[in-house]
Design a protein that fits this description.
Blueprint lengths: L1 H6 L57 H26 L10 H12 L7 H18 L11 E4 L2 H29 L3 H13 L1 H27 L17 E4 L1 H11 L3 H21 L3 H14 L1 E4 L1 H10 L9 H11 L7 E4 L2 H26 L6 H13 L3 H10 L8 H15 L1 H6 L10 H5 L1 H9 L2 H16 L14
Parallel strand pairs: 1-2
Antiparallel strand pairs: 3-4
Length: about 500
């Protein structure tokens, strides 16, 4: 079932070539069982996503069939050993969430292979570019610099520093998917499973460990693939644990500038400015990271798994408990199941939470676009080409991002960045950068989703003097709560 594949890190709708349902045994020339027919539902066995290692196929290209099978078997046994070791090490250790980050880290290491070399000249170029860009940003924003250190990273460094954040972001979704999967089952089956889990707690712990390990393995492979395209630590628009550290990946930037046929120095300064702008938000807007995580948690709480289509299909097939004990009837049932759709429907009922998340991501990205454009302006001749390149890059999600979206139902590439850019630009022109940046002082002051459609309403609120009155009322209320005023304007002595 695609739902299980999604939970365990596979590709939704996936299966072997020639298999329409993705069910084991559906394809293959011989019609027999084929390990590849399991698709993503492999419990971590088989090639890691994003890896070029195909488990002995490359090695057997010029060898005999027996040698090829032996190589594939040894590779599978190695992965099985890693899987068992990973599951065993999970017991007795407290996980930070529903994702085994150790498994994710190991999978990323296998996928990435050897580390690229970063030369001293590249490090100096990164440091100089960040320092210059941060200096220019001082002229266009009231938020002070948030950089405490400049670093040059390689893909592995980005994975290591971003993995804790991804674990926190995706764990609520994975946990809810597990719970929602049981809640969506028909009443009698759900009740039986509930009784089973109470009496077989140890087995369920094992299953939870398997799910955690497998999802971690798939996440690690996806992040490793994504890391080879990342140019700076904040490119995904989410704060990492390395707040205050401006980090760029010079080897990736060099390849990007070559592909774009633009001066590498221009590309480096442009990306350094974006990284420095992000760091100002991560450092000086402390409520931003918890707010993002809270929106994802609200989104996860609204996940509902609907099995009604599966229930109807199995009812039409006439399945009953006795059929499960008769090998012939069971085989017949399995054959019928290969021809019908057995994917539960997943609904996201908290649309407002998802909208709030998308709005915040768009506002963050849009603000960065505006201040970077203002900072570098005519100072870099290729600024228009760089801005256009970034818009195209942002609009095109990579395969790794699509995999993360399929696993967690999250779209971390905001769709309304252009609207956010227009909003921040109009606010700057009408109200000045002080009021614009003052919107980050408190989440209630941040523009709303409706403001992306009607910037004038947001500008009117910012220009309205009632904002100052509102803050004064808050200060008065705080004074009253502390016993400094009796509510009639008369001071009362504090006890």
């Amino acid at each position: 079932m695609d739902f299980l594949r999604r939970l365990l890190g596979g590709n939704p709708g996936g299966g072997s070539a020639g298999s329409s349902s993705g069910m084991p045994g559906a394809g293959g020339a011989s019609g027999g069982f084929n390990l590849n027919d399991l698709g993503g539902f492999s419990f971590g066995f088989g090639p890691t996503p994003g890896s070029s290692n195909t488990g002995g196929e490359a090695e057997s290209a010029g060898a005999s069939g027996n040698q090829g099978r032996e190589g594939g078997f040894m590779f599978m046994m190695q992965q099985m050993g890693d899987f068992i070791s990973g599951i065993s090490s999970s017991f007795g250790k407290k996980q930070d969430g529903a994702i085994n980050t150790t498994a994710a880290r190991n999978a990323a290491t296998r996928t990435l292979g050897a580390d690229p070399t970063v030369r001293d000249g590249q490090r100096r170029a990164v440091e100089d570019s960040v320092q210059l860009a941060d200096l220019w940003l001082n002229e266009v924003t009231t938020l002070p610099s948030g950089i405490t250190r400049v670093e040059t990273w390689i893909p592995r460094t980005w994975v290591e520093n971003s993995l804790p954040t991804w674990g926190r972001l995706l764990s609520p979704v994975v946990e809810r998917m597990n719970t929602a999967g049981l809640e969506g089952l028909p009443g009698d089956i759900s009740e039986q499973i509930g009784q089973f889990t109470e009496s077989m707690g140890g087995i369920m712990n094992i299953m939870n460990a398997i799910t955690s390990y497998t999802f971690g393995t798939q996440l690690g492979g996806a992040l490793a693939t994504l890391s080879q395209q990342i140019t700076c630590s904040s490119e995904m628009g989410i704060p990492l644990d390395s707040a205050g550290i401006a980090a760029l990946l010079p080897n990736t930037i060099a390849q990007l500038s070559e592909d774009l046929e633009l001066p590498q120095r221009d590309v480096l300064v442009f990306l350094a400015a974006r990284e420095a702008a992000y760091q100002r938000l991560w450092t000086h807007v402390p409520w931003l990271a918890p707010r993002l995580l809270g929106a994802i948690q609200d989104h996860a709480n609204g996940i509902v798994v609907d099995y009604s289509n599966i229930e109807s299909a199995t009812h039409e097939m006439g399945l009953d408990p006795e059929a499960l004990t008769d090998p012939e009837k069971l085989q017949e049932a399995m054959s019928q199941m290969q021809t019908i759709e057995l994917t539960p429907e997943i609904h996201y009922t908290h649309e407002k939470a998802l909208q709030r998340l998308e709005t915040m991501l768009a506002l963050i990205e849009g603000w960065v676009d505006v201040v970077v454009q203002s900072a570098i302006g005519d100072r870099i001749t290729s600024t228009p080409a760089l801005a256009e390149m970034w818009q195209r890059r942002r609009a095109t999600a990579s395969q790794a991002e699509e995999a993360l979206k399929a696993q967690a139902g999250l779209e971390l590439r905001p769709r309304r960045v252009r609207d956010a850019v227009k909003l921040w630009t109009r606010i700057t022109e009408a109200c000045g950068m002080e009021k614009r940046d003052g919107c980050w002082a408190h989440p209630d002051l941040l523009p709303r989703a409706s403001d992306l459609d009607n910037p004038a309403a947001c500008i009117d609120r910012l220009l309205d003097d009632s904002t100052d009155s509102f803050e004064a009322d808050l200060a008065k209320l705080e004074e009253e709560l502390l016993g400094g005023d009796d509510g009639d304007g008369n001071a009362t002595p504090q006890q």
